[in-house]
């Protein structure tokens, strides 16, 4: 840590020094740029002054030459323009106009001097015509003009410098004046010849206005350079600080990474999980101590092995395919078995990840789950034992309930035949009381048999052996939901002070339905509602459409879908929490058993029938406010042919010959008697072989119009024979 702090301090100082160097260079660059720009501005000012000086010279030169070409001009004589004494030798220096006005000749030099005087007063520019041989003393050159005149060699020479003139900074410009033919009129006596440099005109332009304009440009120029300087210095300082912090952070990250790697390596080495590094061919490149202890192999042995030598559930080709999938997916998590050195099986959980940096490898973590697997197996065995115990308990409860119900219904069926038998002789002899007693006994036996049939039927439904055809039916047309028909189905069970209200939907609700069985569900729930209401109240039967866009969580979870709902609601006392959890258990009831109580399997059968219709039954209840049972039936397309539910009617009869085959004598006896009552001619057989024999004998005599058989040999070559097979329970049998 101390080394890290020292390195961080060195980095900070290094970047501070770099910042100072860069800031110094930046400052020099900006200062240099400012100086260069100031010089450029001043040069531009001097250039503009030179342009003005040249313009002044060219103007003077042009009108002077014009005057020279015309030999001068005549102007009125005034105090400011007296006759020129240097032109006294010219005869016509002074003339008069016809009106008597005095005029004097003004040569180019005289005219130039007067123009320069006016310009100096008005503009401040000083223009001086001078010569090394002046006619007038005032035209004598100053030292700068003399030096320039002495340096001139020809017509194209010129001089331009910034000098002090009368204490003011001026740009001085001068060009030579060449002797022309017109000049000799005045200067021939001085020895000049045409083409000689006779003198020059110097222009002195004050620089103060030009420097003033330049200053107006220099101030924002300096301000801009100052801003750029400050921005640059600030940026360099921020950069140095940022880079210092960045480098220190990188250094810290590198240190943290190094420590993390050390901790990672230490964690892997000391981890309770096994660890592999595997190449793309399945060779183990590295393992940790945990896997060494886990597998029983030494490190040297493991590093010379492939995965296939340890893996028990996949061969080498399958392992390679698995590795290809991991490369595509990036990682995998699975359970498998490894081979221990002692030959035993090691159950493991494997988490593998494919990495490409720094090399393409698989990093694998392996957890020994042998104890967990053993615990799961023990838990599964215990769960199986518990389930078996619960099943045995349930079977015991079911058997007890069935035994109780059957005992109740079989008691009269066992005792009453003896009473009938005892009173039969008296009834035959005309004893009216004995006859009525026999009839009453037979009716009791019949009701008991019907109740026994209900118990058996409910047991078959509960065991889900009841297979029945379902067809498209509009729920609203079920007989149990038609007010008049429903009253007839539960006639005698509705007290006068209890009202049954029907709210049937106008919307078509088509579902696949076994009418008789679903009506049993509705009848059962209506009767339960009547029992729950007690002395006074209402049972409401409703149908409606419901579309679930998501799961509905009520008493049970109902998946999304389109349903037709049959709802039976009562205004009874409701169902308690403890009872609500058990209402669909066989033989669980909160009311006393009676003749109207059914088999004791009521709601469990209801649940089974609804499940057979691929539907759901939901329950909502509130103590003191009543209960609502909602049957959700999945709807099907209304384009399917909807069949109107029909209940079984009166069975017709006939005169055909029928063969009944059953191994139970009592069944054959009952069927023969029932069919005989309907007018059929009935034979019976106790086995298939006996039936074949009877059919063969009777067919040869042409005595069978229809044949019933349960053996393929009965038909033989007679393809026109018809048969009906019945075995055990038939869902449509009454």
Task: Explain this structure.
By secondary structure, the chain is an alpha+beta fold. It folds into 5 domains: 2-72 and 107-212, Beta-Lactamase (2-Layer Sandwich), CATH 3.30.450; 272-368, PAS domain (Beta-Lactamase); 375-460; 468-634, Heat Shock Protein 90 (2-Layer Sandwich), CATH 3.30.565; 651-734, Response regulator (Rossmann fold), CATH 3.40.50. 47% of the residues lie in helices and 20% in strands. The strands form 7 sheets. The chain has a 5-stranded antiparallel beta sheet, with helices on both faces. It has a 5-stranded mixed beta sheet with strand order 14-16-19-21-20. Helix 15 (665-677) links the parallel strand 22 (657-661) and strand 23. It starts with a helix and ends in a 34-residue tail after the last helix. Residues 593-600, 704-721 and 728-734 have low confidence and may be disordered.
How many discrete domains?
Answer: 5
* Sequence stretches where pLDDT stays below 50 over 5 or more residues: 593-600, 704-721, 728-734
The level-1 CATH class of the largest domain: Alpha Beta
Instruction: Please summarize the sheet with the most strands.
Output: 5 strands, antiparallel
- CATH topology label of the largest domain: Beta-Lactamase
Shape: elongated
Task: Look at the helices and sheets and give the structural class.
Answer: alpha+beta
* Mean pLDDT value: 79
Number of strands: 23
Question: What is the element layout, followed by pairings?
Answer:
Layout: H1 2-69, E1 73-76, E2 94-96, E3 102-106, H2 108-123, E4 126-130, H3 143-151, E5 159-165, E6 168-178, H4 184-187, E7 197-206, H5 208-270, E8 274-278, E9 284-287, H6 289-295, H7 299-303, H8 316-329, E10 331-339, E11 345-355, E12 361-368, H9 370-428, H10 432-462, E13 471-474, H11 483-489, E14 498-503, E15 510-513, H12 515-533, E16 537-548, E17 552-553, E18 557-558, E19 561-570, H13 577-580, H14 602-612, E20 616-622, E21 626-634, E22 657-661, H15 665-677, E23 681-685, H16 688-700
Parallel strand pairs: 14-16, 22-23
Antiparallel strand pairs: 1-3, 2-3, 4-7, 5-6, 6-7, 8-9, 8-12, 10-11, 11-12, 13-15, 16-19, 17-18, 19-21, 20-21
